[in-house]
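As agreed, record passed on underneath.
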Amino acid sequence: MNNAMTRKPNVVWKLPSISSFGLKVFACVTMLICNIGSSVVQDGIIHLDNYTQAGLAKAMETDSHLVMMAGIGSAMQIIGGFAVPIFAFLLVEGFRHTSDVKKYLLRLLVLAFVSEVPYDLAMHQSFMDFSMQNAAFGVAVGLMMLYVLDLFKEGKGAVAVLARICTVIGALVWVSLLRVQFGPSTILLVAIFHVFYARNVLKTLLGILVSLIHITGPLSFYLIWLYNEEQKHKEWNRWFYVFYPAHLLVLGVIVTFLMK
């Protein structure tokens, strides 16, 4: 009797898991926080464009409210670093599971072009600004890169390796010329996730190195490790496409109002 009462139950410790839907929600939330920090806080409240670096430092010496808001805006942008590796990872997963790459690319291109005016309004308070393009263009270029890389998947030898390297370099050149937000890091992460897809340790180490530029980016790899490959709530996919331009439009309206 005593032995039965003192016997420890068999407890199996398991890691939590996360589906593609969970990753998308997390990435969208962190992206939203980042963009609020960039547009509403820094442009709408602080009016950062009105300061030089030296002028901002001088103003912060006597204005504690400015110091607090600058800190909040910076922290919110740092949080946005979580989203970059996750979106790159999800693009590779989407590429591997899609039945029609051309339709997938068309959706991303439509998303990028539709989002550009809301992006310029939110980030530059202008209906058209070519100083930087929205992140969806980087994802679209990343998908085109994956398509070309896939053409050489059966190739072996120096020629095939050189073709893959040139493809990645070409994608990096495109996002750099277009000045895409998070463009170079997105392309490098997409390439790493694709080329080293089955080599989890190597792709994680390389991905973390690239993600260090976003400070919080390496922390996203914990969630990526927990990914269970489940494709839940597919009916919500269209709303993720709507969310990106919609939230930028709302932020653009808010920051325009605050700057009046």
The first helix runs from residue 2 to 6. The chain has one domain: 17-259.
